[in-house]
Design a protein that fits this description.
Helices cover 70% and strands 12% of the residues. Helix 6 packs across helix 14. It is α/β, with parallel strands linked by helices. The longest helix is centred in the N-terminal third of the chain and has 82 residues.
Length: 851
Amino acid sequence: MIPISLKLSGFLSYRDPVEVDFTGFDLACISGSNGAGKSSLLDAVTWALFGQARKRDDSLINLQSSAAEVAFVFSLENNLYRVQRSSPRGKTTLLEFQILDGGTWRTLSERTGRETQARIEQTLRLDYETFTNAAFFLQGKADQFTQQRPGDRKRILGSILGLEAWEDYRKRTAERRAALEAQVRGIDGRMAEIEAELAEEPARLDNLSRLESALDLLSATRKSAESALEGMRRAAASLGEQRKLVAALRSQLDRAQANLSALESRLEERQAESLTYADLLGRGKEIEAAYKSWQSARDGLARWDGLAGQFSQAEKRRSPLAEAIAVEKARLEQEGASLRGQYSGISEQLSVRGELHEQLEAAQQSLAEIEARLAEREALEKESQSAREKQAELKAENLALKAQMDEIKARIERLEVAKGATCPLCGQGLSPEHRQTTITQLNAEGKSLGDRHRANKAEMETLASQITNYQLLITQFATLDRDRLAASGKIAQLNAQLESLQKSVAEWEGKGGPRLKEIEDSLADGSFAAEARAQLAAVDAELKSLGYDPEAHDAARQAEAGQHAAEEEYRNLEKARAALAPLEREIKELKLQVEGQKSQVEEQQKEYDDLAAALAASESQAPDVATAERELFAVKEQENRLNQEVGAARQKVSVLDDLRARRTGLESGREALGIQIGRHKTLERAFGKDGVPALLIEQALPEIETKANEILDRLSNGSMSVRFATQAEYKDKKRDDLKETLDIQISDGAGLRDYEMYSGGEAFRVNFAIRLALSKVLAQRKGARLQTLVIDEGFGSQDEQGRQRLIEAINLVKGDFAKILVITHLNELKDAFPNRIEVEKTGRGSVVRVI
């Protein structure tokens, strides 16, 4: 991976957009004062590629920006790629991955950000940890490997080489082995169950024989009970036929008795009817005379009914006319009353017209005063808003000043407590003069920022007091909007009342007054509804000529109604004369039928009593079929239960052969699982730390040692070399075995010594050589070509000669890399590099200049 260009804005100290072009050089240093933003350029690269940096995502956004945005273009295997990542404050991070295809950028992004990130890492063949370990020498990380205890170095080397996967393999193999062992335990449990069941074979056979014998005995008992029950049922059937015959005789007797009762009732009815007819015939002359009198009264009523019909027709024609006259009168009276009420209302309104004009003038004057006070309130609100905006600007500036003062304070504290000869800020030698000068400079800068902070705070307090006063004044105008609305409504209401009054007066003078005079005159002289009055007079004359008397008509109606019963008696008399002779013959025949039916009932009663007595005697000697059936049912249930028990016992005996076959199959499966468990145990040992990972480390160490010695030879002018020892003796001399370790032994002009015996510049050169060797080996093992090297380490621990050798070593290895970037704040090292990227911090954030 070779960087081509880097664009960033709103990222850490880079507030405004900044672009760095890497195409104009192969070797360059990134220089600038402490805190200028040099390392932030490297953070921008790792954040764009992997979404990770030395700081959390929350703090990557510049305090004065709403979003952090980085676009990184790099070359890989003759292709140009671009990664764009942006993180708006408080929102989801956006990621875009593209490739240059035919002069245009074609997207390689996947559906989700997670999938797109995986594709970037797949393209690079590096993840964040491998990338930073292989391509970046970050601050404080060069001795990450060498500063560990010898016993931990092998573990850390395995982590750097990515051997953690073998531990995953071991765990997964252990899980599979545990699952196989669980299967074996399950098989053992099932085999134990089978053995327990097979041990029950003699008891099961004995139980089956006993149950079969009991079943045979019970079957014989059941057959005997069935035979006896069958005989009882035949006897019960014969008794049932007797019951049916007795029931049939009882039914015949009931029907005969019912017929006799019906004949006797009919005879009584006919005899009573005969007496009624005889009474009517005795009053024959009287009934005929009453009938003739009723006919005469009926003829008189018919004549009055005719006159009443004619009178009713005329009355029907008279009613609508009288009603029309009354309706017209009521209408005129109502209209007149309405007009008089209207005139009364208008008169009342005219009496208050002057008062309405006075109220209108007062409301208009009040509205003018409210409008003037509203203008005054608007001016106060504008002044309050201006003060609030100024207060917000000062507050934002003080937040930024506070962050800068806290950073300066932390730097001063680090300088005050720093021990040794190395500056914790710049990495160069820390003399008392340098310490005091730096602290004085930082204090002055902090005081300047503090003065600005206090001045802003005082101005904010003044503004807060002004805002409070404005709010108090504005509060006094709180009801103005409601007052203005009330005044406007009052004016509109008064104008509407005056306009309505004027309109009502005009309408009354034009229409209402003349119409009221016309109605009063018409009611006084009776001139309304003239046509209906003429028609009513003609109908009254016609009614008078008919001579109809309602009282005489009512008397005739009552006379006819009083004699109406004579008609019914006359009809009954004629009916009696015609029916008396046939009725007497029917009564004689009914008497003969009653005597014959009584003889038949007596005969049937005697036959029924004889059969009922015989049935009772038979029932007293009948067998108990129900009890016999219950006993047989109980025997059958017991037989069924025994049948089920015999079937279950036979099943338990027959299943033993299946269990023997299953036992054989389980034994074979257990043996196969045992073989698999053994193989997985072997794999566990192979995947463990003493297995394949140890072999890989053993294979990698010679390669790392060779590359480290090549670099160290250049750095030490051939006076130093390094060797890795992977085993050492225990302090206990009685032990014959060796302990696992990873000692770093360095050979120089004074002999062979452990790494821990070196310090300062020599240790840094060893760190640099081993770190660079690890980077090359790691990149090769990941399948990636290490084309870019970034060194973000202080050179303060090196003397002038050591620094020169490091620079020479960098120049010697630059042929192995397409791009090398060295970050330093030492002015004396700037001129040692052919190209420089100058980083400077301004009031608008960090800026970059390529020289």
